[in-house]
Specification:
Elements (H helix, E strand, L loop, with lengths): L18 H5 L4 H10 L1 H4 L9 E5 L10 H9 L3 E3 L10 H19 L3 E6 L1 H12 L4 E7 L13 H8 L7 H8 L6 E5 L19 E5 L12 H11 L22 H4 L3
Parallel strand pairs: 1-2, 1-3, 3-4, 4-5, 5-6
Length: 266
């Protein structure tokens, strides 16, 4: 039986977030304003080593949506790059070649591995890129990205299929690979109060180089500008290449993070 708007149904499938959570997505503006007010605190995050970071926007978003993230990362010392492909209209299969070319361009110009930060659908692309070209990818950080379990459990599925011309069921083997373990360090940042995607679709399998980080009360459209999420992204990117250690939730935004054991419970 279903256990709520986003709980499992009798068939075992997941449901998209309920109407209440979807309407509450408007709070994303407050998350952005909070990050502006807390910018002095955010600048205390670990500094970057100058390696390139490619920021991938979510469905229907453009590089503009990732501008605050890129600006923040540049101020921390990273070489932050836009994807330069206009508005993200979806299409996992259609976008693969262009995304690989963009990654290769940045990798060749810098001579260094590239970290990938993807918001929502951008995170799905990021995980696919890591599978395609692990020799060019340093790590992957996703924000509210529905890559696991029943990926139809979003409030954007029908629109995605209409705009991209793809069905979610297409490329089943590829989607299964994206949901599995990656050959590079990976972090999934998500929120149980996400009003667009069911948070369970964002959970990766924790391992010695992969983890989930739950940001309490964050929205889907605000996750990429949420101060606690920004801090977590900066912290994960600051890890030395080839190394991985669990996220330390004891920083200035400690109250915003759920403990690891809660993050993977039902």
């Amino acid at each position: 039986m279903a256990r709520g708007p986003d709980g499992p149904q009798a068939t075992g499938r997941l449901r998209p977030p309920g109407l209440g959570l979807l309407l509450a997505e408007a709070r994303g503006l407050f998350e952005f304003n909070a990050s502006l007010l807390l910018s002095p605190v955010l600048m205390r995050a670990p500094r970057g080593d100058g390696h390139p970071v490619l920021a991938l926007p979510g469905f229907l978003a453009s590089d503009l949506s990732m501008a605050p993230m890129r600006r923040y990362l540049r101020e921390l010392g990273y070489e932050a790059h836009a994807w330069r492909m206009g508005r993200n209209l979806g299409g996992l299969g259609r976008m693969r070649e262009a995304l690989h070319a963009r990654l290769a361009e940045i990798h060749a110009a810098s001579g260094r591995k590239v970290s990938l930060v993807g918001w929502s659908l951008g995170g799905v692309y990021a995980r696919d890129l890591a599978l395609q070209a692990p020799e060019m990818v340093r790590c992957v950080v996703t924000l509210g990205s529905p890559f696991a379990s029943d990926v139809r459990a979003t409030n954007a599925t029908r629109l995605y299929e209409m705009m991209s011309g793809e069905r979610v069921e297409d490329f089943a083997e590829l989607r299964e690979a994206i949901a599995g373990d990656l050959p590079v360090p990976a972090t999934s940042i998500y929120s149980r109060t996400d009003g667009v995607v069911n948070w369970r679709t964002c959970l990766l399998r924790p391992s010695d180089r992969a983890e989930n980080i739950e940001v309490r009360l964050a929205s889907h459209i605000g996750l990429g500008v949420n101060p606690a999420a920004l801090w977590a992204v900066a912290d994960r990117l600051a890890q030395p290449e080839g190394e991985f250690s669990p996220f330390d939730r004891a920083g200035p935004f400690a109250i915003a993070y759920a403990p690891p054991e809660k993050a993977i419970s039902a």
